Amino acid sequence: MAAAPTHKFQAPKGTRDFFPEDMAIRRHVEGIWRSVSIDHGFDEIEGPTFEHLELYTAKSGDGIVSELFSFRRAGGETDYALRPEFTPTLARMAAARGAALARPTKWFCIPNHYRAERPQRGRLREFIQWNVDVLGDETAAADADVIAVGAGVLDRMGLTPAITQIRISHRGAVSNILRHLGVADDRLQAVFELLDRRDKMDAASFDERAATIGLDGDTVARLNDVTRRAFAL
Questions:
Q1: How many C-beta atoms lie closer than 10 Å to residue 231's C-beta?
Q2: Residue ranges of the chain with pLDDT lower than 70?
Q3: Region for 109 from its dihedrals, namely left if φ exceeds 0, alpha if ψ lies in -120 to 50, beta otherwise
Q4: What is the pLDDT of residues 106-126, one digit of tens each?
Q5: Which of 26, 88, 196, 201 has the smallest number of CB atoms closer than 10 Å to its CB?
Q6: Cβ distance 70 to 102 under 8 Å?
Q7: What would the DSSP string read from start to end of 100-159?
């Protein structure tokens, strides 16, 4: 029998231990994700836990580096990063298949992700995420496929329409709302990026950042009112 350690180690902050009872629940949920995805015609994929750092900076700029667990192997010259999301890997894998990729292609995965952020409720440094993607189909049918898979999972878990709700976000509709609020087309992308980070910022920081991209106080107030009412639906 191994001797008990003299120092009590704890799991790194922002991570979770899965004891047998926890793992049983996790595997049950993952099993539902997997079986429903397959039933809807999606094929499972997986990629490496870490990628070249450039894969993420090419999409989001150097500012994302502070949000990643990045590293360089001793004696090496290449920078890597633990994956914070799967979309860049998905795009890389699709590009590798090129013209040989079927259209549409329906893929899903259940990978671990990592982000070097301050842990908070609902946002851990290591987390599992179910991803469902349709490639090569720009019609509403692709959206319907993904929504149907989500609804199928809720149904198989016993979560009926009486206690669940599916909310749909549409970038085009949001763009029109922003234009109506007076946001110029050349500022739309900056506003979308700001909205994506909204849940990570306090109200003062949000207002300050909004001002730096050219939104005046009245526009910010109207934007807050619109988003507050949307989330209240």
A1: 8
A2: 1-6, 227-233
A3: beta
A4: 999 999 999 998 888 878 999
A5: 196
A6: no
A7: GS-SSEEEEE--EEE--S--BTTB-SEEE--EEEEES--SHHHHHHHHHHHHHHHHHTT-
